[in-house]
Amino acid sequence: MGQNNQPAEQDLNQLLKVRHDKLKDLQKNGKNPFQITKYDVSSHSMEIKDNFEFMEGQTVSIAGRMMFKRVMGKASFCNVQDLQGNIQAYVARDSIGEDSYKDFKKYDVGDILGIKGEVFKTKTGEISVHAQEVTLLSKSLQILPEKFHGLTDTDIRYRQRYVDLIMNQEVKDTFIKRSKVLSSIRRFLDKQGFMEVETPMLVSNAGGAAARPFETHFNALNEDFKLRISLELPLKRLIVGGLERVYEIGRVFRNEGLDTRHNPEFTLMELYQAYTDYRGMMDLTENLYRYVAKEVTGSEILTYGEHEMDLSKPFERITMVDAVKKYANVDFNEIHTTEDAKKMADEHHIEYEDRHKKGDILSLFFEEYVEEHLIQPTFVMDHPIEISPLTKKKPDHPEYVERFEFFMNGWEMANAYSELNDPIDQRERFEAQEALLAAGDAEANHTDEDFLNALNIGMPPTGGIGFGIDRMVMMMTDSPAIRDVLLFPTMKTLGGKDQ
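RE: above sequence
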């Protein structure tokens, strides 16, 4: 096997050697491209193409990576790729000079060029730049993937995202849209009077969600810390402090598995608004999703895979009990004890743990029978108290809480509460979480005494919500996996253990 690969490796090594030799020759002749510190770019490719009628005959300066070159004696064509796309350049010896043309002929695909010239249209109708000057701005010492096959190995694409962005325009478009998603969220919330804040990533108590944290050690304090799993508790402290509308878009970290919708570090947005409840959060979510979809995609109808989701209509609102009744034909209003719930789970082959109570079983039924059906935008309301330790009880049904999860395409996209602001109730909930922790639930919360102190000082009625930004971007870009919308997804180290 090794012998068969040897000629290919020798050919590659020889090609790389040629590039290094070209660089040495440039340096020897006082033309070291790495000594250039700037280049004044006046225009980008799509600006020129979109405004050709105005720009025809004008002198422009463009810069980018040479992706193609065809030398034809005294004149050549090359293709330069920049942020917006690509544009052809016509490079003639008589226009740039004999010495510059000799240099140009030695340039390689992958080199970064600056080209100054006049905008024109070729005989075949292609908008191009007639070069007057060509400057080598950076020498590529590595070889790009072969043009027609591109970069298709997903592992290499994720590990070498910089090459992926060069070779696959649709990948670049995805991450441009991701940036637009974030900026449009900020514009929407700014108009609603929200204030963007930042809270710590290193915490002594990782609370606010059911997840296993990453742990680290802070040498200066000789103290163990955790990476945050949520933004919730610090933001609620700010509501206590009188900042009535706050939000944060930030990375959170959960020590759990990898799959198409989960990465151990991901982007979460949480916002909290004083003097409203979870129904206020529903209204905000509808308006936010419509606004972002229109800004980023130009439409309130999203296509993801085989599904089309209409955000222009009012989003469906259904309780978890009614959803399970609708799709599993099991009515939890008729189930009054944990024993009855477990018996029903046994009949439906739903696996559960000994510690699970009636509310936990309801949630398991929901996951098994309901989630996959929630393709259109849907708010699933009124969750059992057992799975909602930070949420206000429903006054008329205290075994349930004022919470909703927002679903699209069968995925949970957001999670919202009428926030619990009763410090006595909150302490009891924390004590219940501590009992679960002692029973072996690694995702249960520890008691946060400082947060309890904040609630004792007094927090107004508050609505809060957390949005998974990565899933939102997946939906807006029709991306099949979360790694496709993360510039640098978590990957196992090459040559690491078990490899």
